[in-house]
């Protein structure tokens, strides 16, 4: 909701600026009221996202957008062990598609799941970034060639 909007806006702004500096995107990590996973987030190598939560949550790396039946209690994928309140910063160190979820109870199935697509770096031309922008991204209006008005 407010969060998804925020993320989308951040993504759009990021692509508009075609960005020079590393981004650290804050994520309000909680069970979405929509019951749907978070919007896919697009980053470049060197960027990061910071999960912030107040309830009992954690951050766990999974291998696809399907929530596993169970999460093991430890190991390298248990990025931020579940805790009451916390913050965890995930760094985009290499291009690829990553899935991070909350390992508490059914939170993953309830929507605490985010797909993060990492591109190879800010050197990408805007045209090369285009396929990474969600089709439903709101900012497409008035986007004619050569009129990159927003700086
Ligand atoms: Cu959770």
Automatic annotation (TrEMBL):
What keywords does the record list, in alphabetical order?
A: Metal-binding, Signal
* Xref: SUPFAM superfamilies: Cupredoxins
Descriptive protein name? Phytocyanin domain-containing protein
Q: Where is the signal peptide?
A: 1-22
Specify the species: Symbiochloris irregularis
Q: Domain of life here?
A: Eukaryota
Q: What's an example of a GO molecular-function annotation for this chain? A: metal ion binding
Q: Where are the transmembrane segments?
A: none
